[in-house]
Amino acid sequence: MSGAKRKTGSGGKIRWTAFEPAEFLDNEAVIAEYLSAAIEDPNPDVFLRAMANVAKARGIAEVAKASGLGRESLYKALAPGAKVRYETVRKVLDSLGVKLKVAA
After folding, report:
1. Is residue 5 part of a domain?
2. For residue 5, what pLDDT is reported?
């Protein structure tokens, strides 16, 4: 899997499109591994971005409704640099159908 997709445009020129992680988050095992890897990063923005990508894969409107948050609130909570409350993280994770676990 590469970071971008290559497409041939008019005149045979190659165009690159941005990599979209949500396209690959299509089953529970992949989502769990993706979020597990993201939470290991010391930068909290990495985990927020991962949660945002999973929410996009599942459908932002559906996740917002299931979590009890408005769409705009969900976008703000998952934006890089957000100072999101644990309660909000928990609501979003619950709506995504994933559990946060601690292991030694």
Report:
1. no
2. 60
